[in-house]
Design brief:
single chain; mainly alpha; elongated; binds protoporphyrin IX containing FE
Length: about 120
């Protein structure tokens, strides 16, 4: 299931980059890619929740992992929406990068699946 979880956020990341690129060109397909990205938010959350469901108990750090994971999703959504409105997104990009790095670190540190950092 961790492989499914990784697949969903990698696909989401690609869709996010594509949406940003299309949006910059004012391409009308941006909306479609954004909708697909939203579907992948749900899949990321569902696979993450499934991992939690399969565990009998989990350390408090898992709560932090979930919150940071949701923060990454929130930042992607806000960046796309605010860019569409022509508003400044510098702070959001900073949040996105920080949250993404922390999510990767925690994900790979926590005992389930790959554990590169422990
Ligand atoms: C885009 C946002 C996210 C990223 C980049 C991300 C990244 C990761 C990574 C790299 C892993 C490690 C997989 C492995 O070791 O095989 C992981 C595991 C996990 N993720 Fe996420 N995740 C995100 C969102 C979420 C969300 C929203 C949830 C909660 C619903 C969640 C819950 C979990 C859980 C419970 C694990 C297992 C932790 C462990 O390795 O023991 N993740 N995630």
């Amino acid at each position: 299931m961790t492989h499914a979880h990784i697949t969903t956020w990698v696909v989401a990341l690609i869709l996010f980059v594509v949406a940003i690129a299309l949006q910059a060109k004012g391409n009308e397909k941006t909306k479609m890619v954004h909708m697909m990205l939203r579907l992948f938010y749900v899949l990321i959350i569902a696979t993450g929740a499934w991992i939690l469901y399969t565990m009998s108990s989990f350390p408090a750090l898992y709560i932090v992992k979930v919150v940071v994971g949701l923060w990454v999703i929130g930042a992607m959504e806000m960046i796309l929406i605010r860019t569409a409105k022509g508003k400044n997104t510098n702070v959001l990009w900073l949040q996105f990068i920080t949250a993404f790095v922390v999510a990767l670190y925690l994900g790979f540190k926590l005992p389930f699946g790959f554990s590169f950092f422990s």
